[in-house]
Write a structure and sequence with these properties.
32% strand; 277 residues; 4-stranded antiparallel beta sheet; 3 helices
Length: 277
């Protein structure tokens, strides 16, 4: 069963949970259509600026985004359809459109460093790389490698058991469970499967929408960051590195590409229709 759906309108900022979402060829509608740029045009990530995770972005009408800051202030930013084009360092994309100066000033104040807010006007301008499972005609929003990230509760439960065991072996206090939000998935599934059964899913039908496997998801440091305190710890990467490491990377979740489009809803049946990616 599909237990939750998560949309992150601005790359690396906090997102929102929704009961239903429209799956487009390049990802969930309103997901990762905005990003934060440094003054030199490079993309700013939460792995470098942890405060980003404390700012919430929610989709608004007509492609706009509603931001809630660390200080509780809010700002609505309209999609800059005719905004100035700015170069970006994101692979597969040359330019994005800059939002109004008001957005840059507000976000710079929240992050305590100069930044700009930018928008991807048309995801069809960004081609998905073959190295990450893309085929001819596949396009991508502002996600790192693939349109959707799928995780499962069975795998998280196993991971938390491993983390408790690691702490015990090191004579540490038993830690609080790691929450799924740390992994920033789009769709979260609960099925009567073994932990990490999703590693072998080739195609997955969610309600009436079919997804195909792109690749396993290698994890950066973001899951180690406490979204409330904005401080990084050791887990879950310490334990994942012991249990789920190959090719010098640690793995949790699978990246997916929509084969069809349509609406998915919390409570939809989730059915893997193939195995062995």
């Amino acid at each position: 069963m599909l237990t939750s759906i998560h949309i992150y309108p601005v790359k690396s900022l906090g997102g929102v949970d929704v009961q239903a979402a429209y799956v487009e060829p390049w990802g969930l509608r309103d997901d990762r259509r905005w990003l934060v740029l440094n003054p030199d045009g490079t993309v700013l990530f939460a792995s470098k600026q942890h405060r980003m995770l404390g700012i919430t972005a929610a989709p608004a009408a007509d492609g706009a985004v509603s931001l809630t800051g660390l200080d509780g202030s809010t700002l609505r930013v309209e999609a800059p359809a005719d905004g100035e084009l700015a170069a970006t360092s994101l692979p597969g994309l040359d330019t994005v459109r800059l939002a109004a100066r008001e957005a840059a000033d507000w976000l710079s104040y929240q992050l305590e460093q100069p930044v700009r807010l930018a928008w991807l006007d048309d995801p069809r301008r960004r081609t998905m790389a073959a190295a990450h499972g893309g085929l001819l005609g596949d396009h991508l929003n502002l996600s790192d490698e693939a349109p959707l990230l799928l995780t499962t509760h069975a795998s998280l439960r196993q991971l938390n058991r491993w983390i408790v065991r690691t702490a015990s072996e090191k004579a540490e206090e038993e830690p609080a469970p790691i929450l799924m939000a740390r992994f920033r998935p789009n769709i979260v599934v609960d099925r009567a499967d073994d932990p990490f059964a999703e590693d072998d899913w080739n195609r997955v039908r969610v309600g009436d929408v079919e997804l195909r496997f792109a690749e396993h998801c290698d994890r950066c440091v973001v899951p180690t960051i406490d979204p409330l305190m904005h401080v990084a710890g050791k887990e879950p990467l310490r334990t994942l590195a012991r249990r789920r490491q190959w090719d010098h990377k640690t793995w949790f979740g699978i990246r997916m590409i929509p084969s069809t489009t349509g609406v998915i809803r919390v409570g939809d049946v989730v059915a893997p229709s193939g195995r062995g990616p």
